[in-house]
Amino acid sequence: MRVFRRSSAGATEGQAQGSQPAQAPEAPAKSKPPAQTGKGRPTPKRSEAEANRYRSLTGTTTSGRNRSSAAAPSRKLTPEEKARVRADRSKQMQAMRRGEDWALQPRDRGPMKKLARDYVDAHRRPTEFYLYAIVVAFVALEVGKSKFGHYAQDLLLAIIVVIIADMLFLHRSVKKLAAERLPGESTRGITFYAIMRALQLRRFRNPAPRIKPGDSF
Questions:
Q1: Tens-digit pLDDT profile for residues 48-63
Q2: How far apart are CA 190 and CA 114, in angstroms?
Q3: Distance of alpha carbon 14 from alpha carbon 18, whole angstroms
Q4: Rounded distance, CA 197 to CA 206, Å?
Q5: 116 with 174: CB under 8 angstroms?
Q6: Interacting residues of 108 by C-beta distance below 8 A, sequence separation 6+
Q7: Which stretches of the chain are DSSP H helices?
Q8: What three-state secondary structure class fits 55?
Q9: Which residues are within 8 A (CB) of 152 and not within 5 positions of it... i.e. 6 or more apart?
Q10: How sure is the predictor about 64, in pLDDT bands with cuts at 50, 70 and 90?
Q11: Angle at Cα 80 formed by Cα 79 and Cα 83, nearest 5°?
Q12: What DSSP state is assigned to residue 128?
């Protein structure tokens, strides 16, 4: 007959201790990377942060607000320097009137613009006198509203028709001349440039005309 006996106390305690789960090793404490531990600089004020936000690469503010520093005052010119500046400006204006390329504005430079100026200056065009006709028409309209009013209105309409017709003719002529004299050159904006010069009075054209009406060029 099999006899069951109670296990010893040591075995029981050993089994109890063996049944308990083993504790996991302690995980190492998480450490922040050096970039996240701190900014390494004091937090800027709100006004400084907004100023830097709208600052361009050149150091100026793009929005015009919160400017960091005012422009340094310029040094006053001496009387000799002022006289030299006036002389240089006068020299440049005279060169511009003569049509020298170095003194011209960017819109007047280039052989294409020079060709358009010479073509317009070499012809008497009705658009050259439209200002006089408009003044006469308005004077007639105001002086005699009852007697000359109808004729003044007809004169204004006739001036508009003549200007439009002359602009179309000038557009075709300048394009044709540019294709003959300067083949392969870009004619962008040349028609508008020629029309605006033709609408100006001859004495107020800049650069000044170097060709008289009727001369060949």
A1: 666 665 554 444 554 4
A2: 10
A3: 6
A4: 9
A5: yes
A6: 117, 207
A7: 9-19, 34-37, 46-53, 79-98, 111-121, 130-143, 149-181, 190-198
A8: strand
A9: 137, 138, 140, 141
A10: very low
A11: 85
A12: G
As a whole number of angstroms, the distance between CA 145 and CA 173 comes to 40
CA angle 78, 81, 86 (to 5 degrees): 125
Rounded CA separation 168/163 (Å): 9
pLDDT in tens, 136-154: 877 777 776 656 667 777 8
- Give tens-digit pLDDT for 177-217: 999 999 988 899 999 999 999 999 898 899 999 989 888 88
**Six-digit token string for 169:** 């003719």
Residue where the block lists tokens 């309209």: 141
Cα separation, 97 vs 207, whole angstroms: 4
pTM, two decimals, is: 0.58
Residue 217 near residue 119, CB atoms below 8 Å: yes
CA of residue 123 relative to chain centroid, distance = 35
In order of 70, 136, 151, 158, the CA distances from 147 in angstroms are: 65, 15, 8, 19
Task: Give the model's pLDDT for residue 156.
Answer: 82
